Amino acid sequence: MTKLPSLAAEAWLNEPALQRLFATLAAAGGEGRVAGGAVRNALLGEAVTEVDVATTLSPEQVTAACAAAGMKVHPTGIEHGTVTVVVDHHPFEVTTLRHDVETDGRRAKVRFTDDWDADAQRRDFTMNALYCDARGTVHDFVDGWPDVQRRRVIFVGDPEQRIAEDYLRILRFFRFHARYGHGAPDAAGLAACTRLKAGLDGLSAERIRQEMFKLMSAPGAVDTLKLMAGQGILSQLLPYTEDWRVLQRLGADPLLRLAVLAQDPRSMPERWRLSNHEAKRLEALASLLPPSPALRPTEQRAILYHMGPEAWRDLVQVAWARSDAASDDAEWKTLLELPERWSIPVLPVSGRDLLAAGMSPGPEIGVMLSKLEDWWVASDFQPSRDELLKRLT
To answer: 291-302 burial, b if ≥16 CB within 10 A, otherwise e?
Structure first.
């Protein structure tokens, strides 16, 4: 049997808040173990940002024990056995061990258990089905440690069964491969994802957006998107371009990559239920002309003034990626950094100033302000308030 490493020396495992939670669950007659991503990342030598705990106690027992210990408990996912326990201002998701009794490809009905092996068998990938107890001992019921070592994303048990339980696992397969995988993806997993790709049509736009944004920010995103395109899976999600070179040069911002990947970026806010802010960024990328290093400095400042720093950075990055310039080109880098070197000024006059200068209230105030602003911008923002007011006469 393969000897499993110990995580006893990990700083996150020895945090007093987590150890206090472990002790509270043990005092109530149960056991808690860190499950999933934190264990996987620690074994891979990567940062641990979230710590989720699995337990043999029921949600009611967890709630009672933790509340009695002075911890705040929130029933954030009680139907699936999850409560959020706040220990000394540190939140932990605590989930009762479970196994699925009914699935429909989108959600599952679960039954609680105290069987660690049963809980492991219902998880998606072997690298996500590892547990670590309070002492740092790693527990592996699905032979996941060798897959972690090889950075192989392997479904637990039968891939088609795992996917049929929740079709989002197709996207998770590719997302985890893009983030952690080395080499070619698992052949059995890839074949199952391809055979069952029609199941993606039943997923909510919000779940697709969440997984795809994580995928598109991963180190292996572009090669994985190519793989998905070749399997006919990407076309299930959106009409796409094949600007792979541009996508690779863009870096890890998923929204910029989506702006290039989508044939019709303006359709994506509705298709993937993007936030208002994300929709605004896409609209700017689709409708505004991108800046260029060939512009004179005065022209650059005028454009930045009108479009704002965020749209400027987005448009410059996409235009740079589409260009033939090197990724370390000094002129493009200088252009991109203009918002850091030059603070956008504020027009030094207002409608109140124009009224005080003798203009009558009405739409003419707005017209005159616009004219003064145009002149001020064309003059490279140099005219002072007094100079602008003199221009009224």
So the answer is: bbbeeeeeebbb
* Mean pLDDT, rounded, for 105-134: 88
Q: Provide the pLDDT for residue 109.
A: 67
* One-character DSSP codes across 221-248: HHHHHHHHHHTT-GGGT--B---HHHHH
Exposed/middle/buried for 16, CB within 10 Å: 0-12, 13-18, 19+?
Answer: exposed
Overall CATH class of domain 1-150: alpha beta
Q: Name the nearest CA neighbour of 172 among 201, 215, 122, 130.
A: 215
Each residue's pLDDT tens digit, 231-287: 999 999 999 999 999 999 998 999 999 999 999 999 999 999 999 999 999 999 999
* pLDDT tens digits, one per residue of 155-186: 999 999 999 999 999 999 999 999 999 999 99
Residues 6+ apart with CB under 8 A from 145: 2, 4, 5, 43, 130, 138
- For the chain, the domains span 1-150, 288-341, 351-390
d(CA 248, CA 221) in angstroms, rounded, equals 8
Sheet order of strands, 138-140 included: 72-77, 82-87, 90-96, 52-55, 32-35, 130-132, 138-140
